[in-house]
Structures are given as structure tokens and as C-alpha cells.
Amino acid sequence: MKKIAVLALALALAASVGLAGCGQKQEPAAEPAAPETPALSGTINIQGSDTMVNLATAWAEKFMDENPDVEVSVQGGGSGTGIAALINGTVDFADASREMKEEEIAEAKSKGIQPVEHKVAIDGIAVIVNKANPVEGLTHEQLGKIFRGEITNWKDVGGPDKPIVLLSRDSSSGTYEYFKEAVVGKDKEYAKTAKLLPSNQAIVDEVKANDAGIGYVGLGYVSDDVKVVAVDGVKASVETAKDGSYPIARYLYMYSNGEVSGLLKAYLDWVTGSEGQALVADEGFVPLQ
User: Fold this and answer.
1) What span, in angstroms and rounded, lies between the C-alpha atoms of 223 and 89?
2) Regarding beta strands 213-218 and 165-169, do their DSSP bridges make them parallel or antiparallel, or are they unpaired?
3) pLDDT tens-digit readout, 270-284
4) DSSP 8-state secondary structure symbol assigned to residue 247
5) Residue 172 contacts residue 77 (beta carbons within 8 Å)
6) What is the rounded CA–CA span in Å between residue 57 and residue 80?
């Protein structure tokens, strides 16, 4: 009888231990930690458009703040200069305020460079005059005639009896090329009297100082020191460039050698993403979306 009692007691203890075990909360197995994204490092060399140089510098500085092991070098000099550097293989990106020409693409390919175009922002080209000039607007046709040298006095477009002083970007500028095609005429030439200047800011400074001057600059360079003239009744602004109502607007580009990867892709994705496009707006240009 004692053996039976001892066996029953052992079975009861075992059952109670089993029930206690069933009542315990099972802790889930810890998930493996996600692998850390490797920190970006390396150097990016960019050269080109003077219109884009302030924007490109703002992009570079912000990206380097967020990625301390990355060095982004930005130089201006004009779209043509940047494209030439890409063709010669000395830069990672060429900034351009115009599309590459067929002959530039052919030359690049002859040197083993495969240009790939990336749209990074939108710009309107503002026509500016001195604040003392009473002219508020011009038609597209009048503007073309002025820059071709066919209209030479402000009185012929509602202004004072003064010779018009033409101010243009130099021929290495993508803005020069675009304005020639869009306003002067693809098969026409700028007036020989046009004063060619090396930068947007130089045009702003000259128009500010000369009450007979007229020039054109990227939206990001418009300031209270000059007056924006309407073209066909519409003034250049972020809003009118974005909605397509302003007739002299264009994309801004970055060109690479082939499809980008690694650090270059990370940078381009950042430029065209929310942070980069916020800086586009901050610099007075038009974001892609």
C-alpha cells in the first residue's frame, strides 16, 4: 500500500509541474538585428552650368553635412565647360541648363563616354530691366527683335528715347544657347552689339547700374535690384514656370557617364528626392514635382 501511495504522490507532483509549465508565458525569440547601412564615402566631382552653381553648391553642402565621409566638389564655368569635362572624363557629373548637342554626344561616344541625362529641376529665364525703366512687358516677337538688333531704341516698345543696351550670357553658357533657340531664333544670331557677360550675377549687376540695359537670368538670380518684364503678358516666376504659362522655361540637367551606381546613385537619388527638391525651391527654382 505504501508503494501505491508513493507512486500516486509522484504522479501528482509531475502533473502539477507540467501544468505550471503550461501556464508560463513564452518569450518570443529575438529577431536578428537588421544590418546597418554602410556609411557613404568617397568623392564626387561636378562642373558646369553657372545658372545651377548656387543650387549645386547648396546640394553639395547639405549632402556632405549628412554624409561626413563624402566630399562633393562643385565648379561653374558654364554648361559647355561642364559637358566638355564630362567628355574628357574629368568629372562625375556635368551640370547643364540645356540638353547636350548631337555633336557633343557623338564626340563623347567616340571617347568611350556614354552620356546619360538626368532632369533635376525646372527654371524660368527671367527678362530683366533697370527699375527706372517704365516698360512693363514685351511680346515674344519684340524680345526676339531686340536681341537680334532689329529694335534698338526703347521708344519703339513704349519706353524712353534711349538706345537699348543688350546684355547676354557668353557662348559657353547653356542659358545663352537656350535663349538663342527660344527667343533669338534657332537660325538667327544675337546682335553684334550685345555685351557678353560671364555669369547671371554679372547681368543683374549691369542691369542694376544701367537704366537702358536689358538682360536675361535664371529665376534663382532675380532680386529686388532689378525689374522683371512680362513676356506675352506673363512674368517669370516659380508658379508660371511650373504651370507652363511662362513661355521661356526649361529643365535643368545633370549628365553622367553611363547609368550611375554606388555613391553617385545615392547622390543623384538624394538630389531628386524630397530633401534635394526642397533646396531647389529654397534657391528660387522649380522642383520637379
Assistant:
1) 36
2) parallel
3) 999 999 999 999 999
4) S
5) yes
6) 18
